[in-house]
Design a protein that fits this description.
By secondary structure, the protein is mostly beta strands. Helix content is 11%, strand content 36%.
Length: 95
Amino acid sequence: MATIKITLFASATNARHEMQVPDTITGRALIEAMLKNGKLSRTDSHGQETDHQIIAGKKGQSGGTRILDKSLCDAGVKDGDQLIIKTEIIAAGIL
């Protein structure tokens, strides 16, 4: 296990979060830690529930790999990489 420095860019808020994390952490665990520490919200400004995804990709490339249950190491994330947090509104079901 190594500790790597990453930058998370939250696309919904244009916020950048630099942090050092173990390369064995999963995307899901990273999102949960950010929710717990108040760096991400479970709802948008209108109270709608949100879902967060972490996307790893190379600078200048479109698309990227969604990281949820993979570790950062398994997803190929290296020291100094920037990851994107994509936030989507969860649509309410109609019964």
